[in-house]
Amino acid sequence: MEEELRFGPFSIVPARRKLLREGEVVPLGSRAMDILLFLIAHRGEPKTNTEIVNHVWPTTFVGEANLRVHMSALRKALEDRQRDSQIIANTPGRGYTFIAAVESGNKDRNEPSSANRQTWADQPTSRIFGRKAAVAAIAGQLARGRLVTIAGPGGIGKSAVARLAASNYAGEADVVWIDFSEIGRGELVQTVVASALGVISRTDNILPEIISFLKTRRLLLVLDSCEHLVANVAEFVEKLLAQTSEIRILATSREPLRAEGERVHRLLPLELPQGRMKAEDALASPAVQLFVERADACLGGYELTDEDAPHVVDICTRLDGIALAIELAAGRLETIGVATLSRSLSDGFRILTRGRRTALARHQTLRATLDWSYQILPSAEQQALNALSVLPGWFASDMAAAILSVDETDDILAALVAKSLIAAATPSGETLYRLLDTTRLYAAEKLKEAGERHAAMTRLAEYLTALFESAEHELYSVSMEEWSQEFGQYVASLRAALEWAFGESGNGLLGVRLTVAALPLFFRLSLLDECLACVTQAIRFLESQPGLDERRRMKLYAALGWPQLRSTDAPEFGVAAWSTAYRIAEELADVDYQLRALWALWVDAINRAQPRLGLTFAEQFGARAPLSSDPTDAIIGRRMKGATLHWLGQAQEAREQLERMMAEYQRVAPQRHSVRFQFDQKVTASIIHARCLWLLDHEDEALEEIEETIRYAAEIRHDLSLTTVLAEAACPLALLAERDELAADYIQRLRDHTKALSLDVWHTYADCFEAELHLRAGRHQECLRQLQRGMPVLRGAGFILFQTIFQSVEAQALSRLGHHEEALAILDAALTHCESSGERWCLPELYRVKGLALLAANGPAAAQTAGHCYRTALGIAGEDGTKRWEHRIRTSISNLPAPINPASDRDAALNSDIASHASGIAP
């Protein structure tokens, strides 16, 4: 019997895909029929255009115009006017709803009955998560073809999805389920099928009887677990489909059957949550839903909490969304907690045991599942899978070839992909491969058992060393968009190779070579924590064997100080490391590394707010730069000198140096984005140039240059350069320009960016910059809290570049809270530092704030000393040409509550000077 659906004057038998009007066939195209059946199946539910398109055209991209054409044809066939719709309502901007009342009945099928017809009522016994789209896609493929194979790795849920798809199909035809998992010999395929169908044969060739039995029947045969019998099953189904017309076959296998007419549905892992999240958000993920449902069943009551959510997300992610592995993990909650389970997954094959007693043997533990896949591999594929386990991330075929050292790499990769043991993707045209973590851990055990891990890791480390050495210039000097390949994809393998190299059974010298070769990549990708750890290990190894490799020791010491340029907890070894690198470079007559070391010593001096010392290093750099083979080194020397002049208070001279430098740099290296000196040179020059523009009273130009530089740094995808422009130009200049909303935006961007990258120095800078916003909003205590928490951290790490300007903000907050003596002491300490170090760029501002603090502390009685501070501030600003400071000083004077009453001729002269400045007249 077939279900007949009736609405108005129409009736439809879904199994026959025929629309009738009062018994007469209504012509209707197949797409319009698909739309109608979909809407009827969801009658009363609004369906969006996207949902309809995804259902009707699941594997083809079509525009909504296509949908409108077929919907128009459907409305015409149904005589359903859009304005006065009785059948399909259209909600503009939302979609379509089938609104007609539907009655159902039965209609005789014109098929012979048979006592031997098989019925199947094996419904899924537990909920299935995240597979609705897969089941719909499989149904669509079964409608278009007679053989569909669900392929995927062991434990991903192929059988469960096939069971659900078959149960949905049971309304259209009888279903026969045939499990091949316990069949060891391919010649038994036909016998097992015949037994399931109830076909009895008296000859050795049972195929003709099977075909004869099925010729007039409408059946769905589900052939489960075909992977170990693919050749025999493929041959069988081809013959069966060629000599029948109504049979459809749904197979499950870890690799496609590769039979004629086969459609393959690759079953993907369950969708995983992205990042750390709360319970409510995590439960949107099917993988988490499955874990929670199984945990609830296991414990007799379990609800996901915000405390558990990060651990559950980690568990599901580390298990790659593999359904069986997640079920097994949830089952262990009888004896251990969620957090412990998350920590224990490094030994997944011990933890992921104790599946359901009724499950197939190969599904009761994760190891058994993988054993099933591994044991049916040819020896060459087993060895290849073992060796590839040393690659923890995505890899290309050339990398695989280096690890395997065989000529048939492409064929082996294709075979392992077909058998769902390796995943493949083409994100940018090139095919990349990856072992799921569970498979990789299993294969890694096999590799270790075979005693072949050392050889495989050696090949991996040598491959990466050669790759990075050959790409050194490209990594240093070419934008990431122009890289010949995506070098970031090698980071996971790099980590694994270095961990092995410096381990007990590794190769320390190879680890040194790899560390040095990878330095440009570490810096380009801003992986400075990892750089520090690896460099330290490599130096320790070389120090234990003096004279083994002085050139690489020099490079390692040069790199050792670099992480200190942004880490608030780095040891105090920066200057010592750079000095050692410089000494070795002199012994080796290596100009390149002499320059690198001088640059690093200059950076340290500037970060420690010692511009006078910095000028010495900048001039030494400039003197050696002409000896370099790289013409940009002399240009970089000019940038260093220009930046130093800025901190020394010589804004106009600094601007001229930097403008000359940027013009030369553009001419010599217009497409060069060098991070040889850690930061992009165009970015660092623009940072100081913008600061000079502001000081010289070109505020709008300065802010425009900052925005342009931020865009450029983002385009070249260099995190350190982008962070630097936010910290050293965007945030401070927006504050100096009193653009509070813009400053708040820049500060938040700096905080978000540095938090994601663990750039703790600049994250602390963000807190200190924000303190000034608190000051302006009258939140003086909050201002002090942030500064007094952040400034000691910066001082301890040697980052006091902005200490004096932060001290001016701190003094203002203290003064407004009535702590006048403390405020004046802080300002005097800042002025003393400026005198000893040569720092002068903000000296007028310090004297201005001191004048304000004196007046706040003593009122009119401080007229003489406050007036002296203002005159000093104006004198310095006038001498340096920093008109912005002049404006700020005059504004402060004009805001004084009342003229100071002169007590003497000298005080009267001071009042006259102050008044003249307040009115904009030069003294």
Automatic annotation (TrEMBL):
Protein's GO biological process: phosphorelay signal transduction system; regulation of DNA-templated transcription
Record bears the keyword DNA-binding: yes
Domain OmpR/PhoB-type: 2-100
One example GO MF annotation: DNA binding
Pfam families named among the record's database cross-references: Trans_reg_C
PROSITE patterns named among the record's database cross-references: OMPR_PHOB
Superkingdom in the source lineage: Bacteria
DNA-binding interval(s): 2-100
InterPro entries listed in its UniProt record: OmpR/PhoB-type_DNA-bd, P-loop_NTPase, Sig_transdc_resp-reg_C-effctor, TPR-like_helical_dom_sf, WH-like_DNA-bd_sf
Protein name (record): Transcriptional regulator
